[in-house]
Amino acid sequence: MALSFHLKKGFPGFHIDVSLDLGDEMTVLFGPSGAGKSTILNMIAGIVRPDEGFVRIDGRVVYSSEEGIDLPMRERRIGYLFQDLALFPHMTIFENIAYGLKGKEREEIEEKVKEMLVVMRLVGLEDRYPHEISGGQKQRVALARILVTEPTLLLLDEPFTALDYPVREKLRTDLLKIHRTYPVTMLIVTHDQEEAFVLGEKMALINEGRIEQFGTKEEVFYTPRTRQVAKLLGIMNVFDGVVHRVNQREVIVRHQDLGLVRILKRRGWRFREGERVSFAIRPEEVMILREDKPGKADNPVEGTIVDIVEKGLQNTLYFKTRGGASMLKIDMPLFAFRKLGIERSKKVTVSLKKECIWILEA
Amino acid sequence: MEGVSLYPLYLTLKVSSVATLFSVLAGFWVALLLAKRDFPGKHLLDAIFMQPLTIPPTVLGYYLLVVFGKTSPVGRFLEDTLGITLVFTWKGAVLAAMVASMPLFIRPARAAIEGVDRNLENAARLLGRSEWEVLTTITIPLARKGILAGVILSFARATGEFGATLMVAGNIPFKTQTLPIAIYDAVQAGNLYLANLLVGIITIFSVLTLYIVNRFTGGRY
């Protein structure tokens, strides 16, 4: 199972130029609204015609501007889960699921649909119409309708947006199960970071029609390559400094406010002393030290909590350094927040763990 | 008191039914083309097909005479090769009613086809169905209310067709004299009883038609 493509398309004031080579992992196309994600899906599916490029699914070329190949949608064998699901409102659930099985024997159709009803927990709903079932059920019908045709590639456009939280959790389990059970390449489009993290194994970060970074989700989330990627991931804690010293295990960067910041040296890093660099740390990796147990911590920074935003199980704190020139965003679970007795204007010391800091490309 | 003939009523129903059939068969493809495709000259084509709504019926009738009359190439082809005479026959009345009523089919049909969610059609294509199957299993069933409204409206328009019919088919009793023309004739002859009767029939029919259309479509067309 594999998908590879290179797609180019120009719009007024906007240009898409992307290429990817995917195996059978679940891959997420993540990026802000208007980055071109849905258009990329539509070009793969044949709904939108690219200006040039190619799309190859399992070695089968379905589009190639060079070879003059442009298979119609019906011959691409792609399962497409539309954001609005696109269930046929004038057909029953059974008819919806059986729609893609045309041309097969009646018994075979019935058997396959029934099997799919069981797998997708839809038994008993087959005679209802789409407007008579719940949002989560609709989503499963849409998936069933696609999977019953045994596509080689599954495209999902923002699969979670229409769902409530508890239903999202179930859908996620369903998708993971599907991915284990059916040999299918999955490409998921989302602008939701949580969705991206939960569903993706690989992640391609899309911005303004281009892929900013592609890798495992951990790589992209925790080691954003550029300042732009860090910004798109909502990592506010990005700082500029100058490389002070480089040794076997650490890169030490001087920052005007944070002082000397020790960063764990990663493989492939070649920074020279005196070089200007940016470095970042995710808000959830910033640790507030307990007053009663100062101990030894990486990169301690003294300062004040200036603002607290409560978000349920997690709180976001804004921390200002003692010098007052730098602000750090800190995400912390509620239990830790309570245990530390944090309140506004409280003076605290935070630690920036050296293995959690990452140097960005310019 | 003269005897009242219901022949004009019968003729009107016959002419209108045939005219509606033709205007739906032809108009559907026009509606589909206008709803689904973008091409140069689309607005012009749209304007031409909508002409019968705004142009005076006598002018429309004149055009039809010029194009389909015995002296025109089209008229001669129809007469010599196919044996169809349009001018001063009930078939001419069908032609006039068809052309006059087509825009009333095209408009609601086009709007209904445009209203079908493209994602549904694309979903059907991606599930392996051909364009024809998408049209017959998705587009038409989902646009059925608008299409039906168009059928009824164009039939109603065909029954009321007067000016163009008079120009093309004339006013020949028991041959081309449809209900509206018979009303005109009755008034001219001072036969108010007949005029009132026919006017009554056509009024009830017209009100009933619009009522049914509104009931069906919730007043959208």
Keywords:
heterodimer; A: 362 residues; alpha+beta; Rossmann fold; OB fold (Dihydrolipoamide Acetyltransferase, E2P); 2 domains; six-stranded mixed sheet; five-stranded antiparallel sheet; 23% helix; B: 221 residues; mainly alpha; MetI-like fold; 11 helices; 76% helix; globular
Could you walk me through the main structural features you see in this protein, from its secondary elements to its overall organization?
The complex is a heterodimer of chains A (about 350) and B (about 220). Chain A is of the alpha+beta class and about 350 residues long. Chain A folds into two domains: about 5-225, Rossmann fold, CATH 3.40.50; about 230-360, RNA polymerase II/Efflux pump adaptor protein, barrel-sandwich hybrid domain (OB fold (Dihydrolipoamide Acetyltransferase, E2P), Beta Barrel). Chain A has nine helices and 21 strands. Chain A has helices at about 35-45, 95-100, 105-120, 135-145, 165-180, 195-200, 215-220, 225-230, 335-340; strands spanning about 5-10, 15-20, 25-30, 50-55, 60-65, 70, 80, 155, 185-190, 200-205, 210-215, 240-245, 250-255, 260-265, 275-280, 285-290, 300-310, 315-320, 325-335, 345-350, 360. Chain A has a six-stranded mixed sheet with strand order 7-8-9-3-10-11, sandwiched between helices. A five-stranded antiparallel sheet of chain A has the order 2-1-4-5-6, covered by helices on one side. In chain A, strand 1 (about 5-10) and strand 2 form a beta hairpin. The longest helix of chain A is centred in the middle third of the chain and has 17 residues, at about 165-180. The radius of gyration of chain A is 25 Å and the shape is globular. The model of chain A has no long low-confidence stretch (mean pLDDT about 90). The N and C termini of chain B lie far apart (about 45 Å). Chain B has helices at about 5-35, 40-55, 55-70, 75-80, 90-115, 120-125, 130-140, 145-160, 165-170, 180-190, 190-215. Chain B has a single domain (about 15-170), classed as MetI-like fold, CATH 1.10.3720. In chain B, about 75% of the residues lie in helices and about 0% in strands. In chain B, helix 5 (about 90-115) packs antiparallel against helix 8. Chain B has about 220 residues and is mostly helical. The interface of A and B includes residues 72, 73 and 80 of A.
